[in-house]
């Protein structure tokens, strides 16, 4: 199979001489992490799909803008391309109602300018109204060399799904909802250019055992009130997310367990719960975020988990970031959900350390400016294992109130980092926290 490589102009080991896991050497085929500069970020080496020649227009297989469900026609075009060894399946300009479809290896599903794949309504979608897991709208399972491209749109028609879910939320009959694009056990995947609106549930999931996944130039837009409509969720290794614009009703991006060597660059985040790690946070490492903008997001940099969902989270770098009117620019809390956060740092006694105890360390925040924040942030660990080795390098946060820091083994504020608050102290009653380089009362650099 032919492959192309996205080449770096510079490449080096991120955190030179450090290993993916403490004490373990990087394998010879592990992609190198990038060098970060103040102005330019280069993504990982990543294998990109190369699609064979051949074009298969869905209208040639019976699709029409008047049909109530074009899934059979679209699937027939995909199957024909697959039988020929691969090719490009074209969705031409126009609006096409469609049920769930399954892609195949060596296929480019191309949404042409002016095209809309409109998910068939709640009530018609297979399994809708039930509690069993639903098939993804576009399903990628066990595939290699797949492209989803073009400037067209997927419309999830989510409104009825959201209402039905909210009516059943918290009960045994809470309805299941489909993911718009779901990727499992697949490699050499790229999604580029498309937009997804009004998703019933999560927009894109890079689930387990995936490798070399690129998501570039994608727009994801669902209302802030749309429940659980994460933009992108990841559970795998070697993922590039670049040049995306994400507004949604939950985490803009959520990196969960086994997310490693993930780069997020040149992205814009609007409404949503933030750029998150968690709430499942075992084996999360080498996450690099550069040159991103947040505007009106609930949280900025967000790590959330608990004693029963976590593990090692390490080697994280966030650089060259601007946040405007973000509620909590830096929000690292080892209690989840929020209702479990103790009333005070002494209200929760230390517990035995287990394999799922949060172990968060080696986190760098560099060249970050946040204005209009509600609270400067949270750094709150469980008492038995404080988070460690945090560096705030040229970080400037302006907020109404200061930062909470409990059980922190080393937070260094360097290169003029400061916290400016409207009222109170820059740090609110820090407890068992070693913080250097900043005046805890005024927030001025030392």
The coarse silhouette is: elongated
What proportion of the residues is helical, as a percent range? under 10%
* CATH fold-type name of the largest domain: Pectate Lyase C-like
Indicate the radius of gyration in whole angstroms.
23 Å
CATH homologous superfamily of the largest domain - what is it?
Answer: Single-stranded right-handed beta-helix, Pectin lyase-like
Counting helices, strands and paired strands, the structural category is: mainly beta
How would you describe this protein?
This protein folds into two domains: 1-16 and 32-48 and 254-446, Pectate Lyase C-like; 55-250, Pectate Lyase C-like. The protein has two helices and 32 strands. It has helices at residues 71-83, 159-168; strands at residues 4-6, 46-48, 55-57, 87-91, 94-98, 101-102, 107-111, 115-119, 138-141, 144-150, 153-155, 181-184, 187-192, 195-197, 204-206, 211-216, 219-221, 232-234, 237-242, 245-247, 253-255, 260-265, 268-269, 275-277, 284-295, 299-304, 312-324, 328-333, 359-380, 387-414, 418-421, 431-436. The chain has a 30-stranded parallel beta sheet that branches. It has a two-stranded antiparallel sheet with strand order 1-2. Strand 3, helix 1 (71-83) and strand 4 form a beta-alpha-beta unit. The longest helix is centred in the N-terminal third of the chain and has 13 residues, at 71-83.
Structural topology:
Layout (H helix, E strand, L loop, with lengths): L3 E3 L39 E3 L6 E3 L13 H13 L3 E5 L2 E5 L2 E2 L4 E5 L3 E5 L18 E4 L2 E7 L2 E3 L3 H10 L12 E4 L2 E6 L2 E3 L6 E3 L4 E6 L2 E3 L10 E3 L2 E6 L2 E3 L5 E3 L4 E6 L2 E2 L5 E3 L6 E12 L3 E6 L7 E13 L3 E6 L25 E22 L6 E28 L3 E4 L9 E6 L10
Parallel strand pairs: 3-4, 4-7, 5-8, 6-9, 7-10, 8-11, 9-12, 10-13, 11-14, 12-15, 13-16, 14-17, 15-18, 16-19, 17-20, 18-21, 19-22, 20-23, 21-24, 22-25, 23-25, 24-26, 25-27, 26-28, 27-29, 28-29, 29-30, 30-31, 30-32
Antiparallel strand pairs: 1-2
């Amino acid at each position: 199979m032919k492959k192309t490589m996205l080449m770096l102009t510079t490449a080096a080991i991120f955190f030179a001489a450090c290993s993916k896991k403490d004490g373990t050497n990087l394998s010879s085929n592990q992609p190198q992490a990038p060098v970060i500069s103040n102005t330019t970020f280069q993504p990982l080496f990543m294998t990109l799909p190369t699609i064979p020649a051949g074009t298969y227009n869905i209208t040639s297989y019976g699709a029409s803008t008047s049909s109530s469900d074009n899934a059979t026609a679209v699937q027939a075009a995909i199957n024909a391309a697959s039988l020929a060894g691969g090719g490009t399946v074209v969705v031409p300009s126009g609006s096409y109602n469609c049920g769930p479809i399954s892609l195949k290896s060596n296929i480019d599903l191309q949404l042409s300018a002016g095209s809309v794949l409109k998910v068939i309504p709640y009530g018609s979608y297979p399994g809708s109204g039930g509690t069993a897991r639903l098939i993804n709208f576009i399903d990628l399972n066990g595939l290699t060399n797949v492209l989803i491209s073009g400037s067209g749109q997927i419309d999830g028609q989510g409104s009825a799904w959201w209402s039905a879910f909210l009516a059943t939320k918290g009960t045994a009959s809470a309805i299941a909802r489909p993911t718009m694009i779901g990727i499992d056990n697949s490699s050499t995947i790229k999604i580029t250019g498309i937009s997804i609106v009004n998703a019933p549930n999560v927009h894109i999931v890079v689930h387990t055992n995936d490798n070399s996944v690129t998501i570039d130039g994608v727009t994801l837009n669902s209302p802030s009130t749309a429940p659980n409509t994460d933009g992108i969720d990841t559970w795998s290794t070697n993922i590039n997310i670049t040049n995306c614009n994400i507004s949604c009703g939950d985490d803009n991006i959520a990196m969960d367990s086994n997310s490693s060597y993930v780069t997020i660059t040149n992205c814009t985040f609007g409404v949503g719960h933030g750029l998150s790690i968690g709430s499942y946070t075992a084996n999360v490492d080498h996450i690099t975020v550069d040159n991103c903008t947040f505007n009106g997001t609930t949280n900025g940099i967000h790590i959330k988990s608990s004693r029963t969902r976590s593990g090692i989270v390490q080697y994280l770098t966030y650089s060259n970031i601007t946040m405007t009117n973000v509620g909590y620019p830096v929000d690292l809390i080892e209690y989840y959900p929020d209702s479990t956060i103790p009333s005070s740092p002494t209200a929760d006694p230390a517990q035995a350390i287990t394999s799922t105890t949060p172990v968060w360390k080696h986190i760098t925040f560099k060249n970050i400016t946040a204005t209009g924040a509600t609270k400067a942030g949270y750094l709150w660990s469980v008492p038995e294992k404080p988070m460690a080795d945090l560096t705030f390098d040229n970080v400037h946060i302006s907020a109404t109130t200061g930062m909470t820091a409990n059980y922190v083994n080393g937070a260094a504020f360097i290169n003029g980092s400061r916290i400016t608050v409207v009222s109170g102290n820059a740090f609110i009653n820090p407890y068992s926290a070693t913080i250097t380089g900043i005046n805890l009362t005024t927030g001025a650099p030392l």
